[in-house]
Design brief:
253 residues, mainly alpha, Rna Polymerase Sigma Factor, Chain: A, 2 domains, 11 helices, 66% helix, elongated
């Protein structure tokens, strides 16, 4: 494969475009190995650009580096294709995309990890860290979703007769302590407006207010001021999910 520098990137794009146009009308089983690689080179660039806009691409790698590493992964993946199994698939293109995408992303991710810095961490350890971070965030997300949704359910149920009741044998939370705990977390991680919107929305140490009432209390003006309150409320919860450590909430789940 040709090696392009930044100045020749446009030529690379033109070459790929021309090569793909020459493949029009061919069936999947008619592609040669090289033609199949060319066919999916735009997929490589698409995946590489997604990496380049995230924190995963920190280090010395440019977008061209990521595309090159992705193309290496594409070549290796094409060489591993099992056409007997592919022909059994109901949607060959979808199966190909799934198979190749996974290996292209893996090649790019490995290159990023290798070039991230001087300290080398085994890939399996990095993968463990990634998975753990995802689990921790899920724990925090579950905590806040359960807490805030339960407050809404209790508030709404005051005006509605339940269809049926199921005995709850679990130990109830101490609401006063839980609210105090929530307010402490909120004051640490939220700005003043986010803090007040959540406090008033869920009545953590006061009555529960509607979005329009909150807008009036906080001097949020405009025809759609209640929409702005909802946006602040949503961003506040997202901020908590992103910043609160899992160990701070896991005991409540």
């Amino acid at each position: 494969m040709k090696k392009y520098n930044i100045q020749n990137y446009i030529r690379y794009k033109d070459d790929v475009k021309t090569s793909i146009s020459n493949l029009e009308g061919k069936m999947w089983d008619e592609y040669t190995r090289d033609e199949l690689i060319v066919k999916f080179m735009p997929l490589v660039e698409n995946l590489a650009r997604k990496f380049s806009t995230t924190q995963q691409a920190s280090g010395v790698m440019s977008i061209n580096d990521l595309i090159q590493e992705g193309n290496k992964g594409l070549v290796l993946a094409v060489d591993k294709l099992d056409w007997e199994k592919l022909n059994e698939s109901e949607d060959i293109e979808k199966t190909l995309l799934s198979f190749l995408s996974k290996r292209i992303k893996g090649a790019i991710r490995r290159a990023i990890d290798i070039n991230r810095g001087d300290m080398r961490v085994p890939e399996y350890k990095i993968n463990e860290i990634r998975k753990n971070f995802g689990k921790d965030k899920k724990i925090v997300q579950t905590f806040f979703n359960q807490i805030f949704s339960s407050i809404d359910e209790n508030f709404n149920s005051e005006s509605e007769e339940p269809l049926f009741e199921v005995e709850d044998k679990s130990e109830p939370y101490n609401i006063t302590l839980l609210n105090t705990y929530l307010l402490g977390i909120m004051s640490k991680h939220l700005n003043e407006k986010q803090y007040e919107v959540l406090r008033l929305s869920y009545g953590l140490d006061c009555d529960k207010y509607s979005a329009k009432d909150i807008a009036a209390k906080l001097d949020i003006n405009g025809v759609s001021n209640y929409v702005r309150v909802s946006e602040i409320k949503k961003s506040a919860i997202e901020t908590l999910i992103e910043n609160v450590p899992a160990e701070n909430v896991i005991d409540y789940l």
